[in-house]
Design a protein that fits this description.
Length: 330
């Protein structure tokens, strides 16, 4: 079968790989119908930060159809439509025992600690496979995982009704956070991005108004989905007293801020890593969000086009927020 594999920093190759063996134990063999390219895939491509095995097939946002199941699998049989939970947790550390696998000390992700969805097939343990509505297009179903991240971001932000909310970054997470906030009646929401076409797309879909970092002092609720330390530092430095700022972007450098600003203005700087219990909620909401999600999607593209799509996303050339791969496209 064909797969895109990461060999090292900046080295992504599309090539033939052996098909997975028939599934053993609680493994589920899935034909990948759609897989999304995530900002964290690009971060790993640029930095190699999570490259624990070489080569590895990226892709943790995926939807597919079950082809075969191991003898211990109870929930699925062939023909079932499914989506993947991206989180691979140890199951035994204090966070895992508290049912917070996203805070697992050894947390890894599908596509890093095991081969991911940028391939014609993938094998996953039953514990991280969830049922999906067969009526949904696979591209929409593959949006469940990033939508869960957006739901978790909104839960961590816990905005008050009627309060303005500033989102920095109109990429996939910023755009999905704006969508969730609009759908749940929070805001007014304003959004900024140096990619004006992307910001306009999110504005059209969600009604979010244009923002600049100068709006930070008048906004008590803010989200950084840029992963730019300059943006996050400016948000924190200009934040109003009593502000809550959620950091959900993946950063490439260290953040320098005056801690006295955080102290004196009682600013809550909140981290947001993946999602907690939000994935089933995200799956439930997909039908209602489908039309809006469709306007965020680029593609589907072929596996052969993945290296070029990475470059377009890294160079800020992509307008649509989420590039979806269909590995069956020749
Ligand atoms: Zn992701
Ligand atoms: Zn754990």
């Amino acid at each position: 079968m064909r797969a895109a594999r990461l060999y090292g920093i900046g080295d992504l190759r599309v090539e033939a790989v052996p098909e997975p063996a028939s599934p053993a134990g609680d493994d589920v063999l899935i034909k990948v119908l759609a897989a999304g390219i995530c900002g964290s895939d690009l971060h790993n491509f640029k930095t190699g930060q999570w490259l624990s095995r070489k080569p590895s097939t990226p892709g943790h946002e995926l939807a597919g159809e079950v082809i075969a199941v191991g003898p211990d699998v109870r929930k699925f049989r062939s023909g079932d439509r499914v989506v993947a939970d991206s989180r691979v947790a140890c199951g035994t550390c204090p966070s895992c025992r508290r049912a917070s696998p996203n805070l697992c000390r050894k947390l890894g992700f599908v596509g890093e600690v095991c081969d991911g969805g940028f391939a014609e097939m993938i094998v996953l343990p039953e514990s991280i496979v969830l049922p999906a509505d067969p009526a949904l297009s696979p591209a929409i179903a593959a949006m469940a995982e990033p939508l869960a991240v957006a739901l978790h971001t909104v839960n961590r932000l816990a905005p008050e009704r009627g309060e303005p909310i500033l989102i920095a970054g109109a990429g996939p997470i910023g755009g999905l956070v704006a969508l969730v906030l609009a759908r749940e009646g929070f805001g007014p929401v304003s959004i900024l991005d140096r990619n004006e076409a992307r910001r306009q797309l999110v504005a059209e879909v969600t009604g979010a108004s244009p923002a600049t970092l100068d709006d930070a002092p008048s906004t008590r609720f803010a989200v950084d989905a840029t992963g730019s330390v300059a943006v996050a530092a400016t948000l924190a430095a200009r934040a109003a007293s009593g502000s809550r700022i959620v950091l959900v972007g993946i950063f490439h450098e260290n953040l320098t801020i005056d801690p006295n600003l955080i102290v004196e203005r009682e600013i809550d700087l909140i981290g947001c890593g993946a999602f907690a219990g939000e994935l089933p909620v995200a799956i439930e909401r997909l039908p209602a969000y489908a039309a809006d999600l469709a306007s965020y999607i680029e593609g589907p593209i072929r596996l052969a086009d993945v290296p070029g799509a990475y470059q377009d996303l890294i160079n800020g050339k992509a307008i649509r927020l989420k590039t979806i791969i269909d590995p069956a496209l020749a």
